[in-house]
Amino acid sequence: MSGSTDAAFRRQAVRYGAPAVVSEMVAGEALAAARPDVVRKTCRHEGRGLWIVQLAGRRPEDMQRGAEILAAAGVDVIDINMGCPSRQVTGGNSGSALMREPDLAVRIIEATLQGAGAVPVTLKMRLGWDHDWLNAPEIAQAAVDLGVDLITVHGRTRCQFYKGEADWAAIRNTVEAVSVPVIANGDISSVEAAKAAQQASGAFGVMIGRAAMGQPWLIGAIAAAMEGRDYQTPSLAEQVDGLCEQIEDSLSLYGDKLGIRMVRKHVAAHIDKVNLPLDHHLRRSLRAQLCQIDEGPRLIANLSALYAGQDLKVAA
Ligand SMILES: Cc1cc2nc3c(=O)[nH]c(=O)nc-3n(C[C@H](O)[C@H](O)[C@H](O)COP(=O)(O)O)c2cc1C
Fold first, then answer.
1. Could you say which of 199, 226, 253 is where a domain stops?
2. Which of 43, 84, 159, 291 is catalytic?
3. 84 an active-site residue?
4. Torsion sign over Cα 87, 54, 82, 269
């Protein structure tokens, strides 16, 4: 997810057992121009797990060049983005806009595969452009014929953006159209939802996005439940340890000033979701105070002190 699944966050997700994590999307063109902010998004995370980078673009030659660069860097998997609804992306015929232009979509997939060489390529998309245009199965089939190894479908159309509810059952048409694993995505925020999504869609597995913000162990917990394994939810002390590690990683990745800005949304999401007996007002005020701290070490010290004594005040 753009702005969220940086290497600092992905490290936490795999620390708690996520089987696979994907980078923020990067534009092939910007990668080819070696823009430092874009190259940074492709960073490998610390810890276990495959190095998966997502590419977006509207020109086949940029996708090919982007894939060549990623393959040369040694990534394990390249994922093509045909799911982003942002006008900034779709206005330029990339992201989910490509689902309305299947010929261009095919050329983009071909070019990416060419650039990737032996590196496996996967494809993420939506159900279609709108409900009159549900062509995920056709695009998936074409992609698999060209050599794509796995498909992820977010159970909404482009025109829905993030509104309404993801339609997991509608993903089944894609599952039945292809011979490779399909991953169901959209609104999965619990073990129960994951199981329901898998059952409704017949998918091989599920992908978790927004719900993992502030609780990166959710992915490991869901993976364990789906495989019938026990899972020990991290204690509060472990959660804080992980959050502090993420803050430190964020400062190293972006530098002090930008690092603290980038990690704030994760701290805020943690406070929103952490299982503590906080009423709505106290939670809001804690979150606001923590998010005003503009130095990493002070933020870490405050979080540590806060949880050590469970003294729910933020020191100046
Ligand atoms: C802020 C934000 C950024 C996103 N960035 C990406 C992205 O870079 N690539 C991508 O494939 N999907 C991206 N998505 C879509 C999510 O990956 C996911 O498909 C969607 O949010 C539905 O799943 P969820 O309900 O589990 O979040 C983004 C979503 C949000 C809210």
1. 226
2. 84
3. yes
4. negative
